[in-house]
Automatic annotation (TrEMBL):
This is ABC transporter permease. One of its GO terms (cellular component) is plasma membrane. GO terms for biological process: transmembrane transport. SUPFAM superfamilies: MetI-like. CDD domains: TM_PBP2. It is found in: Cell membrane. InterPro entries: MetI-like (IPR000515), MetI-like_sf (IPR035906). Keywords: Cell membrane, Membrane, Transmembrane, Transmembrane helix, Transport. Belongs to the binding-protein-dependent transport system permease family. Residues 66-250 form the ABC transmembrane type-1 domain.
């Protein structure tokens, strides 16, 4: 029994890898702060970051900013994902749509979200429309790209088998092509979740009066690195939770791909 105990603890550590990783980073961070390797104004201690988080929570700004940012990210993500899947289904299986749209969309993909902020403000003003546009644009291109390629790389053997059984084109599309492309589509949606939060900050850095991105900009102006660290950590937690939710939903929907 004693000889097996190290293996037991190693297995537990691997299963709780995220917790171990976070605790390790916190330990290193605390040691750096305690040794005063960097000034507090540059690298605040975990305790000061926690105090800044409590301060923002108590004065109500954190709750308001989270509500506004989550609303923007959710709406932008929903619009971008819906359009990305729809256009990807069309360009992936219809030659005409591929010729008309795929090259142009491919050219747009390298343009970063932050570069679109000035144009979005000109088009939609400094209201919510510009934020939704930046977020949905970024999510759309990623979801479209994955959906498009997933639809193109459906194995021919699946199509030959369905047609040999006399399956109609509509039924083939719904029961063969889309399920075969589903892992690609869900991978794109999962990437879209991360990009929704990345583009959210870009959208809120200019022309916003609330939200996590706006609060980051405000903290920079007042050199409140403790607040900056707090907001960045919260943003990372939100993105990680959203990613886990999408991953779990994907595992249930694409159950035939599991193990």
């Amino acid at each position: 029994m004693m000889a097996q105990s190290p293996h037991f603890f190693w297995r537990i550590a691997r299963q709780s890898g995220a917790v171990v990783s976070i605790l390790f980073v916190l330990l290193i961070w605390t040691l750096f702060s305690a040794l005063n390797i960097m000034p507090q104004a540059i690298l605040p201690s975990p305790a000061s970051v926690w105090s800044a988080t409590v301060e923002m929570a108590e004065n109500g700004t954190l709750g308001r900013d989270l509500t506004v940012s989550l609303s923007r990210a959710t709406i932008g993500f929903s619009i971008g994902t819906s359009l990305g899947v729809l256009v990807g289904l069309l360009t992936g299986r219809m030659a005409l749509m591929q010729v008309l749209l795929a090259p142009a969309l491919t050219l747009l993909r390298p343009i970063p979200a932050i570069a679109l902020v000035p144009l979005a403000i000109v088009w939609f003003g400094i209201g919510e429309g510009s934020k939704y546009f930046v977020i949905s644009y970024t999510v759309f291109l990623t979801v479209w790209f994955n959906t498009h390629h997933g639809m193109q790389y459906v194995p021919d053997i699946y199509l030959r088998a369905s047609r040999s059984l006399g399956v109609s084109r509509a039924r083939e599309f719904l029961t063969v092509i889309i399920p075969a492309a589903a892992p690609y589509i869900l991978a794109g949606i999962r990437l879209g979740v991360a990009l929704a939060f990345l583009s959210l900050v870009a959208a809120e850095l200019s022309g916003a009066s609330s939200g996590i991105g706006y609060r980051l900009q405000e903290a920079r102006q007042y050199i409140r690195t403790d607040r900056m660290f707090s907001l960045l950590i919260i943003l990372g937690i939100l993105g990680a939770v959203a990613d886990v939710i999408v991953q779990r939903i994907g595992q249930r929907l694409v159950h035939w791909q599991q193990g």
